[in-house]
Amino acid sequence: MAVPKRKTSKSKRDKRRTHKKAAAPNPSSCPECGEYRIVHRGAGTQRIEMEIMNLLPGARVIRMDLDSTAGKRGHQEILERFARREVNVLLGTQMVAKGHHFPDVTLVGVVAADRGLGFPDFRSAERTFRLLSQASGRTGRGGKGGRVIIQTYVPEHYLFEHLIDHDFEGFAAKELDIRYELRYPPKGKLTLFTVSSPSRENAVKGAGKVAAALENASSGCDVLGPVPALIERLRRKYRVQILVRGDITPSLNRKLVKGAQAAVSKLPRTDVQWDVDPLSIV
Hints:
This protein is of the alpha/beta class. It is 36% helix and 19% strand.
């Protein structure tokens, strides 16, 4: 008897095709000019775990990341084992930095602490300072004191100068000076426009039209972009962003939105979205 072939739904077939189209080999040099060699830096938690076990042969290491915390109680079980001292090194991503109280922890190490500074967002220094302050607070909570070791490729960044002294007020003053000079909040306001389309050509073309319309309607505000979004392709659509910065009133925002909508109205399958006072511009 012939066995009928199992049917594959259209959505699954499309997903497979999309995955194949999205895959590409890692380039060894700059794809634009070919002059610069690309060096891949960084290490995942598994690699760091291996390095710790090589350096400290007697260490009992446990990882807490997305892979090791699967299941309803995965996260809690790891913390309970660490609290019972079944392991003496807790290794993890940002989830280990917040809210945990272990009085006997005397050392915290942060690998690639400056990674967050590379995000194209004016709040990146603020978020990095907050995360490193939280991570530093996991040590020295008992009577034994504590030590924090931070690895960075940019030790000259003003963030670390204030972090060493636990100087939040000094960091905030420096950060505010920079934001006022560049008209970022709280000095100015932001509206983020995102043009998206299944066609990269339409997304880029639409973003150019939107940027021109915003320039005409912005009344002295800064129009930054267009540039590809940090996650350039999302839900099978290419995304290009334009940021308007300055003294943006509600009436000006309405004018900007109308101009952006008109700019892409004749482009097929091309949309524009806007975010007033965005919490993130990535």
